[in-house]
Amino acid sequence: MKPLIICLFLTITFSNTLTAQQNDIYYQQGLTKLSNNDFNGSIELFTKSISLKATIAAYYNRAKAYQEIENYTAALKDLNQILLAEPTNVDALELKTLIYYLQDDYKMMSASISRNLKNGIDTKHNSRFYLAIAYNELGKADSSAILLDLHLKQKPNDVDALYYRSNLSMDKMDFDSSLADLNKVLQLDSNYKDAYFSRGFIKSLKSLYSQALPDLDKAENLGFEELLYLYELRGDAYKELGDSLKAASEYDKAIKDVEKPDYELITKRAKLAYYQLDDNQTAYDLLTKVIQESKEFTPEVYLVRACAARELKKLDQSETDFVKHSQLSPKSRAYYIQWALLKVEQQDWKKVIELTSEFLKIQKITGFAKSTGQTLIGRALYEQKSFIEASNILQEAFKSDDENPDAHFWIGKVLIELKQSEKACEHFVKAYEMGLTKAKDELINLCDYTEESFDEE
Questions:
Q1: Closest residue by Cα to residue 340 from 350, 352, 349
Q2: Higher pLDDT, 448 or 348
Q3: Long-range contact list for 95-102, CB < 8 A, 24+ apart?
Q4: Reported confidence tier of residue 7, pLDDT bands at 50, 70, 90
Q5: What whole-number distance in Å separates Cα of residue 244 and Cα of residue 242?
Q6: Which long-range contacts (CB under 8 A, 24 or more apart) does 253-257 make?
Q7: More confident residue, 167 or 7
Q8: What is the pLDDT of the chain when averaged over all its residues?
Q9: Coarse DSSP helix, strand, coil percentages of the chain, rounded to the nearest 5 percent
Q10: Contact 373, 396 (CB under 8 A)
Q11: Nearest to residue 368, comparing CAs of 407, 340, 409?
């Protein structure tokens, strides 16, 4: 090894500083292009400068240009040329460690930092903080934590180290410690955009949505770059706060922010459209895009599109999607009630009873959900003219939830057939009072009510 190094020393002549070469026009022009972010142009000029006279300054600045275009191999080669001449050149050692970090070579990074610290070279990247990063990436979490704490004892106001420690705490679900570090970061640097985003993220995890939104807004205003995540997180916050329109707006911005479609996000937006906004067409269109373009999605995509298609009167498509969902989730019965509603549209009363009966076998079904299923069976029995059976199960529906307007409506219809008009009208009144407007027609046609009766209200 020694003869090789001697040869390199004999063939390469370096300057001993990083100061500009006043008489080297290629070097001067290279600096100008480097400052203007014309990295390829600067590399060409620094190469010409080196061909005339190999200097540390030219090698260093060419290494910086190579780093910017992510040609890390070439950058390291130039830095090694410098270090052959000046083994303790701080600028070269600093940039070399940074490049190991940028190319995720944590083994070389940790070795380089350890060696530099042993030689008394403590810089931004040659520090316990960056050694802690390397150790953490290498799976040495305990050593990383010790080094990070030692670094912060020596430099308690290092905002980058505090921010990194907050992320480690977040990974361990220690949200209080993470928030404490983030609060300190923002006290020291009120423009630390990533810290605002992280604090908003943690507050969202703690269901503090109204507190999370100002932090997310601040992060965006300061130029936070990962807008996809910010928009989605802010959309989630608005959704949880019950503002579905703002949530939809944020999801839409997130969807437009990426070149490659995020199908999970598109699915989330579609579900918001169906469940919260009653926007069946948007839900249907978005889920169709997911099904046609994505190779990986959950069976729920077929279920929600089936429901949206049913509302849009696309009954054949709805049936196809329910069948597909049943094939992908053969053990699930929770969605049978939705499929039964399609069968109501198709007036397939036998299938309504069959699907709903399977739905009611789920032990956890109680309250309004159970009452809804029993009411569907009651209606199907009514349509089949099995009035006594219909009356019996509708009475069971009241036991499950006596505030179900549909149950009151259909038992009213059954009681009319059983010649119990007075009781029927009482149930129509209750259904109407609970907001079921179609009960009004029954009251007018069957119960001696008039339009004026409702106007008086």
A1: 352
A2: 348
A3: 95/60, 95/63, 95/64, 95/67, 97/125, 97/126, 97/130, 98/67, 98/125, 99/67, 99/72, 99/75, 101/125, 101/130, 101/133, 101/134, 102/67, 102/70, 102/72
A4: very low
A5: 6
A6: 253/227, 254/227, 254/228, 257/227, 257/228, 257/231
A7: 167
A8: 92
A9: 75, 0, 25
A10: no
A11: 407
CA atoms within 13 A on the CB side of 169: 20
* CA nearest to 324, candidates 359, 294, 293, 291: 291
- The tokens 């944590």 sit on which residue? 106
Structure token digits, residue 129: 């903080």
What is the separation of C-alpha 44 from the centre of its chain, rounded to a whole number of angstroms? 43
Distance CA 149, CA 160 (A): 13
Tokens standing for 154?
A: 């020596």
Instruction: State the pLDDT at residue 452.
Output: 82
Whether residue 309 has pLDDT greater than 50: yes
Rounded percentage of the chain residues whose pLDDT exceeds 70: 95
Q: Is the pLDDT of residue 16 over 60?
A: no
Residue 416 makes CB contacts below 8 A (sequence gap 6+) with 424, 446
Q: How far apart (Å, rounded) are the C-alpha atoms in residues 72 and 318?
A: 54
Instruction: Please state, in angstroms and rounded to a whole number, the distance separating the CA atoms of residues 240 and 221.
Output: 23
pLDDT at 12 over 70: no
What residue type is 222 in one-letter code? L
Task: Give the Cα separation of 424 and 418 in Å (integer).
Answer: 9
Which residue has 């409506």 as its token pair? Answer: 409
Q: How many CB atoms lie within 10 A of CB 440?
A: 16
Question: Can you tell me the mean pLDDT for 130-159?
Answer: 94
What b-and-e string marks burial along 225-234, b requiring 16 or more CB atoms within 10 Å of the CB? Answer: eebbebbbbb
DSSP state string for 61-90: HHHHHHHHTT-HHHHHHHHHHHHHH-TT-H
- Distances in Å between the Cα of 174 and the Cα atoms of 171, 179, 181, 203 are 7, 9, 11, 12
Distances 145 to 105, 134, 138 between C-alpha atoms, Å: 20, 11, 13
Query: Could you tell me the pTM of the whole model?
Result: 0.79
Closest CA to 219 of 172, 228, 262, 266: 228
pLDDT recorded at residue 4: 33
Q: Are 420 and 450 a contacting pair, CB within 8 Å?
A: no
For 111-146, give one letter per residue: b (16+ CB within 10 A) or e.
ebbeebeeeebebebbbbbbbbbbbbbeebeebbbe
